[in-house]
Amino acid sequence: DVKVTQSSRYLVKRTGEKVFLECVQDMDHENMFWYRQDPGLGLRLIYFSYDVKMKEKGDIPEGYSVSREKKERFSLILESASTNQTSMYLCASAQGLAVGQYFGPGTRLLVL
Amino acid sequence: QKEVEQDPGPLSVPEGAIVSLNCTYSNSAFQYFMWYRQYSRKGPELLMYTYSSGNKEDGRFTAQVDKSSKYISLFIRDSQPSDSATYLCAMSTTGFQKLVFGTGTRLLVSP
To answer: If you count residue pairs, one on A and one on B, with CB atoms under 8 Å apart, how many are there?
Structure first.
């Protein structure tokens, strides 16, 4: 079974802090994704990566950056956290063509 | 108008009922269609995947795509309390993995 893990289930941070969210997948997938999920808005794509050191902006990249130094690991960085970045963050991975993405358990981030 | 529309529910049914969950979409270029199940405070889990039109069956679950109507459905037979979750549809125009998600329908199956 594909396993996608995320570094934290719950995080509480202060406005202005730098926040790192890490995601690791164990199935050698090429593609990795970061989403945020908010009530009434569904899942929105922040960034994705189709190869090591490659990244592409999703639909809502503002205020975020990403890093993919190794194939299995994809990090999401909030350079200066703001209260409107309070959300559920979901990482996903996928192999090749669109046969579906596999999600991690999510990180609930609260920015005070 | 959103590219993918999904009724948020909640949809409440008794155990054993047949459940029909639906999504409509506006982009006729969508070719890949997926259904995910998400339990409370968990990540989405891939349930079904179909390409283009037609039906696909997996146990109690049947996914149906009607491209002419831009309408997809997920049917759950003999629904169980453990099916209580939010169901998300997702779709893609090409083989690449950038998916567009519906906002999800919350399903409650009572014993």
So the answer is: 53
Alpha carbon distance B104, B38 (integer Å) = 9
**Could you tell me if A111 and A86 are in contact, meaning their C-beta atoms sit under 8 angstroms apart?**
yes
pLDDT of B2 strictly over 90: no
CA distance A87 to A15: 14
Sign of CA dihedral A15, A20, A25, A29: positive
Could you read off the pLDDT of B42-60 as tens digits, one per residue? 999 999 988 888 899 999 9
Q: Do residues B93 and B27 make contact, with C-beta atoms less than 8 angstroms apart?
A: yes
Q: Is A33 on the interface with B (CB under 8 A)?
A: yes
pLDDT digits (tens, 9 = 90+) for A38-49: 988 889 999 999
A93 touches chain B (CB under 8 A): no
C-alpha B89/C-alpha B103 separation (Å) is: 8
